[in-house]
Amino acid sequence: MSHLIASHQGRPSDDPIFALNKEATARRQKGEAIVNATVGALLDDDGTLAILPTAARAVREVPEVEWATYAPIAGSPDFLRAVTDDLLSAEPELRATAVAAATPGGTGALRHAIANFLEPGQALLTPSWYWGPYQTLADEADRRVETFEMFGADGGLDVGALDAALGRQLASQKRALVFLNDPCNNPTGYSMTDDEWTRVAERLAVRADEGPVTLLVDCAYFLYGARDPRAFLKHLGPLARKANIVFAWSASKSFTHYGLRVGALVACVADGAERKATEAALSYSCRGTWSNCSRGGLAAITRVLTDPEMTRACDRERDALKALLHARVEAFNRHARERGLRYPRYEGGFFVTVFHGSPREKAEAMRAQGVYVVPQAKKTGGGALRVALCSVAERDVGRLVEALA
To answer: Which is it for the CA torsion 199, 200, 203, 205, positive or negative?
Structure first.
């Protein structure tokens, strides 16, 4: 007889990516020459965690009483203003309709969206290549994940497939929550074009006449793309008059403090009464899950967002890390083209996905060579290998590609 409820029995005790990283780290510590492309954190070429010095200073300089005191349930008002301004100050139409709640990292924001914009048993909609914990979050909330084929025959986002899947969901469950991780999608590295964003916004606006539609933009990696990270926002103003637009914002990657667990859900709600109800629901969800976030963490990130000198310093330091990452991206593209690898357009970001018919077998063969990647399979069929280029030194990119090829 088990005391665990049936739906929670047989669950894995460790995330498979963390398990692979643990194994790769242990082999390296024994002296093996390991290439570890599993870690979803930006590392310097010597293998140490890349950290923005100014953000680290802001954390150190938070007064003791700030660390010791409870934060407001939904987060400190100055933090919520700072995050909303950081995202939306260039788009006043969106900014005027925004409310927010502090969350433990971007993951907490995703959790709140699933719990508040879908009924139990309903499914969120996301591309066929997506971050695996979306499924975990949905499972924990008694929701599901449905996908649409991410790429069309031209290699770009298949907007038609998104539209068709959205229509089916609205017909069956009378509401929809769409997760788009962009720019710098995890796991593919793909960033949508202006034209793709225009067409996505147009189709969502049309479908919003059929039922409540919420678009969640998971912008965890948006500051590491090759283009203006906020350019896509200009396409969302007209959509926000018909649909909810919400953002999962995270300080983990933007400010290189993954363990600080600082994030936010920012929701743009056109109707004033619904906006007030949304703000209350998000606060209630905070109280009903983690109660409140780390006040010291919120204070540190507020400071780097609002102190002009610290903001400029963080931007300079992040630009240096982006240059480090971009050099790896260029090296990967050069070697991968020479070896004929199949993968989406990759301009920047922590990850890239290499398509492969037998990803588990391929990943096992690569482990034997001391090269670690993460095998992935789509629900709709097909496989790939997720490559965390953020953790691979430029000098090792050639060996990584050879193992992939």
So the answer is: negative
